[in-house]
Design brief:
Largest interface: A-B, 79 and 71 residues
Structural class of chain A: mainly alpha
CATH architecture of chain B: Orthogonal Bundle
Number of domains of chain A: 2
Number of domains of chain B: 1
Shape of chain A: extended
Helix content of chain B: over 70%
Largest sheet of chain B: none
Number of helices of chain A: 7
Number of strands of chain B: 0
Strand content of chain A: under 5%
Largest sheet of chain A: none
CATH class of the largest domain in chain A: Mainly Alpha
CATH architecture of the largest domain in chain A: Up-down Bundle
Strand content of chain B: under 5%
Distance between the termini of chain A: 64 Å
Order of helices and strands of chain B: HHH
Distance between the termini of chain B: 63 Å
Radius of gyration of chain B: 18 Å
Helix content of chain A: over 70%
Radius of gyration of chain A: 21 Å
Oligomer: heterodimer
Number of helices of chain B: 3
CATH superfamily of the largest domain in chain A: NADH-ubiquinone/plastoquinone oxidoreductase chain 6, subunit NuoJ
Chain lengths: ~170, ~100
C-alpha cells in the first residue's frame, strides 16, 4: 500500500462511519436515507481501493441508486410523524449499546489476535470486468441463472404483495 | 508501511456491522430497520472483497460472491418495502412494535 492509498482508506472509512452514525442520530427519515447513501458511496470507494472496480460500480448502481430510491419511495408512500419527540433513552437502549459494544470488542480482539497466513500467490487483475464476465458465464453460470430466477420471483412477489386490494375486485 | 491492510479492512467492516446491529435493535421505524439491515449486509460484503485481495489465495471468487450477495440484498429490500406498504395499508403505521398480526384486524 502506498501512502496515498492509506490516506484514501482513512478518509473513506471516516466517511462511511460518519454516514452510519448520522443514520442512527438523525430524527427525520429522509436525512437517514441520504446519510446512508453517503456510506454506500464511500464503501464503493473502498472497493476501488481493493481493486474491485466492477463491484464498486455495482455498489453505486444498486445501493446508492436503486435501494436508496426504493427507500425514499417507501417513505413517500407512508406517513411519518417527523418532529415527534423521540422516546427518552431507557435502560433497554443502554443495554443494547453495551451488548453491541461488547460484541464489537470481541470481534476486534479476535481480528487483532488472528494470525492470517501469508499470501501464497500474488494475484494481479489485468482487466477486472473482463475476468469477472468470463468467470460469471463459465464457472458461475448455474448460480447466475438461479439468482436471476430468484430476482424474478422476488420482484413478482413484491408486486403481488404491494398491489392494492381493490384491484382484485374490479 | 507497517499497517496490515487486511486487519484494517476487517476492523472497518466490524465497526459498520456493529453500528447496523445497534440501529436494527433500537430503531422502531421499519424503513430505518431495513436501512440498518442493508448496512450490515454491506459490512459483510466489504469482508468478502477484502479477503479476495488480501486473503491467503487472492482471486476473483470473493468478488463474485459479493455480486451475488448484492443481488440477494436488492431482492430483500424490494420484498421488505412491499411488505411495509401492504402493512401500512392495513394499519396506517410504520412502527415495528405494532407489527404483531399476520391477518387483517
Amino acid at each position: 500500500m502506498s501512502t496515498g492509498q492509506v490516506v484514501a482508506f482513512f478518509i473513506l472509512s471516516f466517511l462511511a462511519f460518519s454516514g452510519a452514525i448520522m443514520m442512527i442520530a438523525f430524527h427525520r427519515v429522509v436525512h437517514m436515507v441520504v446519510s446512508m447513501a453517503t456510506t454506500f458511496l464511500s464503501l464503493a470507494g473502498l472497493y476501488i481501493l481493493l481493486e474491485a472496480e466492477f463491484v464498486a460500480v455495482v455498489q453505486v448502481m444498486v445501493y446508492a441508486g436503486a435501494i436508496s430510491i426504493l427507500m425514499i419511495f417507501g417513505i413517500m408512500m407512508t406517513k411519518h410523524h417527523d418532529g415527534e419527540e423521540e422516546k427518552p433513552t431507557t435502560w433497554k437502549s443502554w443495554f443494547t449499546f453495551g451488548s453491541v459494544a461488547a460484541f464489537l470488542f470481541l470481534v476486534y480482539v479476535s481480528i487483532r489476535n488472528t494470525k492470517f497466513p501469508e499470501q501464497t500467490q500474488q494475484y494481479v487483475s489485468e482487466n477486472n470486468v473482463l475476468e469477472i464476465g468470463q468467470m460469471m458465464f463459465n464457472q458461475y453460470a448455474i448460480p447466475f441463472e438461479i439468482i436471476s430466477v430468484l430476482l424474478t420471483v422476488a420482484f413478482v412477489g413484491a408486486i403481488l404483495i404491494a398491489r392494492r386490494e381493490e384491484a382484485e375486485t374490479e | 508501511m507497517t499497517i496490515n491492510m487486511l486487519t484494517a479492512f476487517l476492523t472497518v467492516s466490524a465497526i459498520l456491522f456493529s453500528i447496523g446491529m445497534f440501529g436494527a435493535l433500537t430503531k422502531r421505524n421499519m424503513i430505518v430497520l431495513l436501512l440498518s439491515i442493508e448496512l450490515m449486509l454491506n459490512a459483510v460484503n466489504l469482508n468478502l472483497v477484502a479477503f479476495s485481495k488480501y486473503g491467503m489465495t487472492p482471486s476473483l471468487h470473493g468478488q463474485m460472491f459479493t455480486l451475488f450477495s448484492i443481488a440477494i440484498a436488492a431482492a430483500e429490500a424490494a420484498v421488505g418495502i412491499a411488505i411495509l406498504l401492504a402493512f401500512y395499508r392495513q394499519r396506517v403505521t410504520v412502527n415495528a412494535d405494532e407489527m404483531n398480526e399476520l391477518r387483517e384486524p
